[in-house]
Every structure is written in structure tokens, then in C-alpha cells.
Amino acid sequence: MAASFASEALSTGWEFKLTEETTLDSWLPVAKVPTTVHLDLLDNKKIPDPSHDMNELQTHWVGEKSWTYRCIFSAGSKIDGTRSVLVFEGLDTFATVRLNGTEILKSENMFIPYHINVTATIIPDALNTIEIDFDSALLRAREIGKEHPEHRFIGHQTEPERIGVRKAQCHWGWDWGPKLMTAGPWRPVRLETYVSKVENLWMENTLDEDLNACRGTILAHVDGEIGAKILFTLSTSEGVKVFEAESKPDANGLAQAPFILQKPSLWYPHGYGAQVRYNLEAVLMVEDVVLHRIQQKIGFRRAELIQEQDANGKSFYFRINGIDIFAGGSCWIPADNFTPRISSDRYRQWLTLMVEGNQIMTRIWGGGIFEEEVFYDLCDELGILVWQDFLFACGSYPTFPSLLELIEEEARSNVRRLRHHPSVIIYAGGNEDYQIQEKYNLTYDYDTDKDPQSWLKTSFPSRYIFEHLLPKTLEEEHPGAIYHPSSPWGDGKHTTDQTVGDIHQWNVWHGLMRGYQNFGNMGGRFNSEFGMEAYPHMSTIKDFISDENEMYSQSLTMDFHNKANDHERRLATYVLENFRTSSLDFKYWVYLTQLLQSEAMHYAYRSWRRQWGRSGDRRCGGALVWQLNDCWPTISWAVVDYYLVKKPAFYAIKRALEPAAIAVTRTHNEWTKGHVAPDPTSKYDVWIATSNVPSVQAAKVELRFISINTGLDIMAPQTEDVEVQLNGTTLVRENVTIDNPPRLEAFVLLATLSIDGQVVSRDADWPQPFKYLSFKENRGLAITLSKSRDTIAITAQKPVKGLIFAERPGLSFSDNGLDILPGVEYTIHTNGLKENEELDENDELGSACQTGSLTWAQMSQRMDIVFELHKKDYSPFPCLEDGDPKDPMSYHGPRINIQEPNNDIIKPGFYVLLGPDGEPVEIPVNQEMPLPRAPSRTLSSSDNSLWKAEGWKQRIGDVETSDTGINSIQNGILLDLTTSIFFHNYCLAIDPDDGYKVVCFSKEPQYEGLTMSRRADIPDKYQPSYALLKNHFRMAVLLNMKGGVGYPMWDEDIPEGCDQVAEISQSDQGKLRFETVLAGKLNQFLA
User: Fold this and answer.
1) What is the pTM of this model?
2) What are the sequence ranges of the domains in the chain?
3) Which of 89, 192, 372, 432 is the catalytic position?
4) How remote is the C-alpha of 124 from its chain's centroid?
5) Do residues 37 and 62 touch, judged by C-beta distance below 8 A?
6) pLDDT tens by residue, 425-452
7) Which CATH code for domain 660-848?
8) Cβ-contact 224, 322 below 8 angstroms
């Protein structure tokens, strides 16, 4: 009787060492295979975690070494006629494999699986030893570069020699990931024994035009003895057989059976239909003995790439089962630097996020890997379309014969692995390789040179790979599959041509660094890359930086974790162009970058989805943000961080890709260009974009014009019944003229779409840029958490921009990064909020963080300015826990709850500051005003004399009120970095006794004491309001001359004709000093 197929996973019993070490104790245990050397070194505590701090630098040596792995395993008894085969699904990268001392394999490609017949080498009924030497890919790449001087090695991002090695290109480092040159058996190793087995099972089929029948051939390749037969079975997921046939393999081991399936249930992407899959099985038999069986889940669908000439050039969009699909989604990079530690559950979490975010396509980027089988299975299950790059990125690849052989074998083996997945609808040759051709002016004559052999002799031989070798191999292994030579690429035209093919639109962030508000007119026929950087949430930052002193945006560790060239300059430019930066509090900086990214995605997706148009006029076929994910905790373009914590941009994309989404936008100035005057009017548009929504019975659009200052409608709301275009764009309003300030006060346009009486979508358009808007007034924001702690209700009396709740691993929201408009109650759901955990309202524009006044660190800083005391002299910020809240001074309890000066937001309530005399000083904190300062201590006589003698050169603080030698500089607001970025590296004060000039008094000794005029070398458009400053400092002088203390008062607060000094000095707020309130008010005018 013939033996059946058996397979044993060789996942345990491994150990590893440095190849150069020869002692017995140099071997270290391996927890399991698949693995990489870095994981094993981490397990054995030989290296620190490279994800944390700057530990990556301590691990670079690993990639410069060779490593040896071995496994001792037991082989079973020998059965006549059976063969033993060792399977290595992936070896990274230059590997020499020995079995019992005999070399059985040399591999130079981490993407090729190997099946090695070891029947003659394995020892039955005994222990056998596998040893694998992994050479340093880093050093081998450099050697290959020297061995091929005939080729010009050009590779961006990393060492150019990487392009001669078939290894994940990002392992050399990228502009979002570290340099971690891995090695090891990164995919499973197993021992198979069999007489015969089914080696490949696949199906070639086509759907009739009307989709009512599927016809094709089921094929299988048999390895081993050929005398068996194969029984093919096709069944539904419920187990109902719909087709069955027998076939005998031919002399080459190929068995096939033609089939016709009437009325097949089809596979659709999510949102367009069910993800129906059938079970395909091949059973290899000799008489009635089953030798081997193999199963696959398959789906029937027709995928087309529609490229037709039209008024805008040549279309580029996908059609699945006759339905045009707007491919909104994201690009995918490896989700971990060390792929073996990504679990199946983690893949499911990632891809479920895509569905949650209304994303329908993922593009597997060419600088990474062919993903794990579970990734494609989940895409099949969840209905996510896959754009699969072949693994080439940002290089002019060499074409020496041995490399071409490796590339062909790699492509062939992986297409065989992927061809049964209905989710995989397109293969592209690589990523941005034709941009290398353009940048270096390499030879590329697309229109006239059609001879692949001649391409090999040009300065751009890579063309042979992308336009001959890969499409030829794909057609042989998967006939009819869609192929695109590269991403981006368009009929041989320039890769930035917006009329054809796909483009990577990087003139936002990279290139021309245009404003993200211009995304709409910068798109192509398919936008397969674009993006904007943002910091992750604070929970992630605190994970990868252990030193609190490095918790600021310009720290060395923070810069180290952002691998993008010029990241600091680019982020700062976009933030400063768009938002007020009165404070560079780190938490607020993080917030601004997140809001920036969210706004950029909002503009991109809503604009390009508008261009989806309708059948026959599809100007834009899709948008794939760079990028969905991260491979380590970092600052990058990802919209979800390494720990699966969503940034606000994720939600902006989700809202823009709703099945029915309304959008509104207005024109704006290019305000960064010289000699631009604000336009007196704007034009606004309103439209609805839909996908495969059910037939709409009744749709209504409401448009409101809401004052940012008052929260009131500045004109009557407008409503309109509309007929919605299905799977397309419905233009509701176009080029409607409306006044701009000062004709009308600044307002938000709020568009609401209701279908069948239910609100399904809202969109808000704000004046641009936000830095010109004032949010200083109390917004009346109310946030209510339900008793069940899973629902949040939010309202506001005045428009609130960009309300972000802080997220962390395990805590998520149904929506975030919200615009809250008056008259609307917003309800979102939360999951994972712990029993005693409070919602962390990260920020919103115009919040306390923007004025730099509501964090413990800032409070500490301001107290230092007022008190000029050493830390040992006072206890900062004990909370008031008993006593009368209406009379905080009644508190005389123990000094408890000492609060560290960190970046946590201070919650509203009463607090006390304990001075050196032990007496509490009241510090009321609310959301309506910045923190008031506590009374300063009275200076000693010697200190006071020093003030009189030295004036502005000394400390800021009170003087004895009976002394008339007041120098008003002490009452000036410090114009340092915490007040405005434009005063960076200065400490300045405004002297109301000398025409309110700006005086330098420290930090820059050569300028000390100089009056710099009130402009302080600031560009005119950032000049503070002189009248405001003068009024406030006049109040300050009057107040201190009288000796009272209190809040600053405006002229309109004092009754006409009364004694201003008396009104100020008799204020019932006299227990508190005024400077911090003044600082907060001025902050809103200084940025």
C-alpha cells in the first residue's frame, strides 16, 4: 500500500550563533522558527530593543555579521517508494544549507521557497542535523556592486548596492523605518514525506459578459509517481458540491479538468456585495487510497482596469463584476521590522481597520515583501482589493544573468502562490523606479524602441524587467491578470503626467511643498501615493522614548525616530503656514501635526472622490494614502501607528469615504505669495459622492453659515431636495459667490446630507488658513460620557475645530478629530475605556493648550517667573481635596498630592500653591481663561534696592508698594519661545515707560539692554497689535502704582467718567496677580 503524505513542522529545537564563533557554548537557543536573528538576540538579551530610544544604533553590528542556525530533528522509518523533502518557505537571504554535513542548497533570494529532495541524505530512524549559514547581506551587496562595474548602481533612500540583492529593500532603512539587516529562517521549515503529492492547485476561468456563467479549467501539478488519479471537487462554503471531475496527470505531472458553473455566486469588494468563496479540493488517489489532498478557497470575479481615452486624457479605474469601483484606500508596508512576530490576529486587526475606515484597496509596496498567506486570506474574507507591487523600489536595477534568473523564479513562485486569491486584482512592476530613470536622464525610448534585448544595453536596463520579464512571467502563470509596469507609470509619459496612468503626488510635503488645500487640482487619473506626516498619540511616544528630557519635538531622540529627510523643516512649514503657534508645548505640537495630517487627508479624499464623476467621465479612479501603517513606533506618514492606534487622519479618510458623503469647499487665497490682498468674495461648491448605495428615495441637503465668533447663523439656512447620482458625483452647488470678511464675519460652511430622513453625512468648510482665525472666546464645549462609558455626546455653543480625544492601545473611538458645530449633537462610541479612566480631550484649536496655559509644566514655568524661588522653597501644585470649594483659602489639610510639572492637562477646579511660609495660595483653573498667577512674595530690601539700581537687568517680581522706584519692565510679559515662536532665542520685555519699546534683557548678552522697536525684527504680518499692548500695559502700570493686584481690565470694563485707578485697585479679584491672564490674552494676538 502506498504511503500517504506526511508533513512535520520543524519549528522547535533550533539554536544559533555567530558563524565565526567555534566554541560549544557559543550556541544560543531559538524560541521558534520562523524567526530572525534580531528576535533571537532579543530573546537572549544580547541586544536592546531597537524600537526604543536610539537603541537601533546598538544593533547595526548584527547586519555586518554572518550567522549560523541549526536544528537537530528525528527522522522516521524509511518506507519504500517514499521521498523525503525539506521545505524552506523563506531564507533571509544568502543562505547555505547543509543536512548532516552535506550541502543541499545555496539560496540568494529571501522571496523564493525551496523544496529540496533529501531522500538520499536523510538518515532514517536517527537524529539528523540541519545547519544554515547566513552571510551578511549588507556586505554581500557591496561585493556584488564591485563585481558588476558595467552597471550604474542607483538606489535612493539607502546604500545603492541594495538593488543587486533580492531582499526586502527597506531592511537597509527607509524614510520611515530603521536600518535592521535581518537574517534567518524567516518563514516555516518543514519535512515532508510522500510517494506523490499535489504540488500546485489553481483555476483559470472567465465569467460570461452577463456574469451568469463561469467557465474554465481546474489544474493541478503532481510531484512524484504519476500513476495516481486526481479527484477535483468544487463546493460552496456550506459544503454543497457544484462540480466534480476526475483527471489523470500527464507525463509532466499536469492534471486538468474543464468546467462550467451556471449562475455562480460572485466575490465582491466590501460594500458592493458578498465575499462569496468556494472550496476547491484536489484529492490524489491510487485506487481507493488517498495519497494527498489539498484545499483552497477561491472566489469568482471579473476584474478590469479601464483605460479609455476621454476628455481628460486616459482613464484609470477598476471595474469589478461590471461595477465601477472608486478605489479609496491606503498603501501597506511591512507591519513590523521582524515579520515573524506579526500574528494572524494582528493581521486581522490591521485589515479590519481598513474595513472600519471605508477603505477598499491596499497597495502592497514594492520595497517590502510578498505578504504572508494570512494577509491575502483576510483580504479575500473581508473584501479588500489588493494592488500587489513586485518587489522593486526607487532604483535602477541591474540585469546581469544570475539576477534575472532569481527575479524570474521569484516572480513565478509568488504568482503561483497568489493567483487563487480573488482580492489580488493588479500587479505592478515596482515602486518609483521610472522616477529614477527621469531624475538621472537614463535612456528610455518608449515610443520607438520595442526590442527588449536592446533595452538591456541601455543605461536603464531595468526596463527589461518591468516591461518584458515580469509581464511575460505573469501571463504564463496567471493568464489575463492585470499588469502595470510600475507605480507610478502612464504609457511611457512622465510619471507626473496627470492625464494618464497613476501618479504619486508628492508636491505636498516633498517637491514644491504646496499647500494641502491644493490637493484637488493636483490629482491624476489614479493617485496611488500622497501623504502628510504626523506624530502618533502621546501613549506611543511615551513608549519609544524613556527619557522625559527628550520629550520635545526637537530632541535628538525624536529626530532619530523620524527618518524623513528635512522632516523638521517640512513639518514646521506646514504647521506655521496653517495654525497659530503661540505655544510650542510638546503635547500641543503633537496635536497640531495630527490636525494638519487630518486636514490634508480631508482635502485630498473629498476632492478626488468628487472627480469620480459618473460612468463615462471618471476623472479620478482612486486614492491610496501613503501610508496605512508603521513598522516600528515612529513619526511618519502613517494614519495608524505601530500599535494600531489611529491618528485623526484615519477618521478624516473614513468620513470622506462613506458610501454617501457630502462635501463643501470654498476658494481661498494663496496667502504665502507676496503682495496678496484678501479677496472680498469666495466661491463655494457643494457635492455628494456615492458608491454602491441602495436606491435613494428622498435626499435633502442643508447648508448653514455659522459665525466662528458668535456661533450664530449669519444668514438663513438653505435646504434643497436633491436627486442623488448612484456610484458617482452629484453636484449640488457650484461657483456660488459669497462675501468674505470684513463684509461678513468669519464663518463655517456646514453641509448636511439626509437620506430618507436620516442624517448620513456632514462636512464643514472653514476659512483658510486657520492661523488667521480667533478661537479665544469660550466655545461652550460640552462633553458627556454615558453611564455605560461607551457613548460620548458632544455639543458646542460656538464652532470648535479639531476636537481630538487621546487614544492608546486598547482604547478606540468610532470617530475622532471632530468639528463640533452649534445646533448639532454629535454622538460617538468608544471602546476600551477603563472603569476609572477619564477621557483625555487631547485638544482643539483655540483651546488652553494653544495659549500655553493649562499644563502643569507651563504652570510651573509661570510660577518660576513670578516667585523666583528654588524648588526646595515651595511645594508646587498640591490639589485642594477638602475645604470649601467656594473659599479655597479655608483649606488647612495635609500637604498632599504633589503634582509634577509635566505635560498633562490641568483639569478645571481649585488648586493651591504652598509658599515657603506654608500658607496656601489659591489657583483657580477653568476652561474660559488662562491660569492667573498667585501673588508674588515681597522682595527683601536688598532685592528691592537691586531693582532700583539695576532696573530691567534683574529678576521679575514685586517691589514694596510703598516704594516709588518702580521700573515697569517688571510688569512686562516675557516674549520668549513659550509666547511666540517668532521670539525664539530671545527673552524680551515691553517697556511701557519708554514708548512700549521691546527691550532685550537676557539670553543674548551682546544685545542686552538694547531697544529693538516694537517690531522686534518680526515680519510685519506677525506684528502684535500695538494698541492692545499699550492698553494692557497701561493697566499694568496703573495697577502696580496703586499697589493693588487683580485681573487686567479693559477700557470698556470701567464706567465712563470714573476713577480708573480706583476701579482697578478695588477689584474683588485683588488676591490674584494679573500677568498670566494678560499673557494668555496677548498670546492669541502674537502668533
Assistant:
1) 0.80
2) 6-192, 326-393+486-534+616-656, 660-848, 852-878+888-925, 941-1086
3) 432
4) 52
5) yes
6) 999 999 999 999 999 999 999 999 999 9
7) 2.60.40.10
8) no
